[in-house]
Design brief:
The protein contains 15 helices and 4 strands. The protein has 398 residues and is mainly α. The chain folds into 2 domains: 231 residues, no CATH class; 119 residues, abc type-2 transporter like fold (3-Layer(aba) Sandwich), CATH 3.40.1710.10. Strands 2-1-3-4 form a 4-stranded mixed beta sheet, with helices on both faces. Helix 3 crosses helix 6 and helix 11 packs antiparallel against helix 14. It is elongated.
């Protein structure tokens, strides 16, 4: 184990001396986590810019306007009193929704005729659109209930009779796991898992490529040190820092961003261990395979977004083509992101994530096996092929 410790010490010294690598290992994960936390800190959409075009300007229409003004969900934008002005505001982005009250609004209501309040909203961004729709229906529903209650009271009905009439059928709704509908609870944990994966892969994958570029990899290949010792020594610092970043990001999410992080600590730690082992081993294998640092950086940059998109974390896997789902099942992020949500948000135990644990365990064992048993034979550069940064040679001057 002295040889493993010596290699690990050498790798740690290099991390501390290389300012860029030092930032990647210790600072960038927290920086990314802070950025994501700041973006999703509010969790809920409030003060949505709303324009109200009151074409009736009656007592009842002003009550509707007041209902929207008193709602914490909306922020009424003044100065827009025509439909054309509403259209222009939507195009400019100064408003995200509009309410148009027809000119015969009070007349129809007093005559007990059905009338409509037009609501338009910007659905180019679904987060705006879905929330505006929900909040608008809440305000209109509240207004309808109050007006109907006042009308029935004028007919001489008691408060109990009015309540029974308005609540003939009640819908009792309970929201489980994320009762505040916080978007941060929904998306943030998955983003943190992709941060840990990409930063971890990038740092580990630069170990061997760096030695190749310095022509010092031959020293490892020719030395009597066993391949598994080289892997352990080279990867140990990155495994420990990756595990540290995992715990740091979970703490940051819970204590600073106030994201819901519950569940068994031992289970969360087990998932982190399996995830870190898989990432570290896979990064080491990638470093063995890649010709240089630029090549491996390009690959990771290209794959980061697709990995997250097909993982099923931000869109239900049941609505993703099966071919893509099959590819996603080969990625540790797919199983880890789902498991982290089930444990930290839904507070479920081990029986509910058995498949996730088994999948991560298999991936950890397979990637570790290939990393431990890599061949110490030096492979000569392949003739031909690309000769710009992604190849084994570089263009020659004529």
């Amino acid at each position: 184990m002295k040889q493993v410790a010596a290699i690990a010490h050498y790798e740690m010294v290099h991390i501390l001396k290389d300012k860029i690598l030092l930032l990647l290992v210790f600072a960038v994960p927290l920086l990314y986590a802070s950025l994501c936390g700041l973006v999703y800190f509010s969790g809920l959409l409030t003060d949505i810019p709303l324009a109200i075009v009151d074409l009736d300007n009656s007592r009842l229409s002003r009550e509707v306007v007041a209902a929207f003004e008193n709602s914490p969900r909306f922020q009424v934008v003044p100065g827009i009193d025509t439909y054309a002005g509403l259209e222009e505001g939507m195009k400019e982005g100064t408003v995200r929704a509009g309410v148009v009250i027809p000119g015969d609004f009070e007349t129809k209501i007093t005559q007990h005729r059905n009338t409509e309040v037009l609501t338009v909203y910007d659905a180019s961004n679904l987060i705006w659109g879905l929330n505006i729709r929900k909040y608008t229906l809440e305000v209109i529903g509240t207004f309808n209930a109050r007006y109907t209650a006042a009308y029935l009271a004028g007919l001489g009905l008691t408060a109990t009779e009015i309540s029974n009439a308005l609540n003939t059928v009640q819908g009792n709704i309970e929201v489980w796991y994320n009762p505040t509908f916080s978007y941060a609870n929904y998306i943030l944990m998955g983003l943190y898992m992709i941060i840990i994966q990409q930063i971890g892969l990038l740092c580990v994958s630069l170990t061997i490529t760096r030695e190749k570029e310095k022509n010092s990899w031959l020293q490892y290949l020719c030395s009597p040190v066993a391949a598994w010792k080289i892997f352990l020594g080279k990867s140990l610092p990155y495994f420990l820092t990756n595990l540290m970043n995992y715990g740091l990001l979970l703490w940051f999410a819970r204590s600073v961003v106030l994201v819901k992080v519950e569940g068994s600590t031992l289970l969360i730690l087990l998932l982190g261990l399996l995830y870190s082992v898989t990432i570290t081993s896979a990064g080491f294998c990638l470093s063995l395979w890649a010709a240089n640092s630029l090549q491996v950086t390009r690959y990771l940059l290209l794959l980061s977004v697709p990995f997250f998109m097909i993982s099923g974390y931000c869109w239900p896997p049941t609505h993703i083509p099966e071919l893509i789902n099959n590819a996603a099942r080969l990625l540790p992020l797919t199983w880890m992101a789902e498991a982290s949500r089930l444990v930290t948000v839904k507070n479920l135990g081990a029986p509910y994530i058995v498949n996730n644990i088994l999948a991560l365990s298999v991936m950890a064992l397979v990637s570790t096996f290939f990393a431990l048993t890599f061949s110490k034979r030096r492979k000569p550069p392949a003739p031909g092929g690309l000769e710009v940064n992604s190849g084994n040679s570089y263009p020659k001057r004529d």
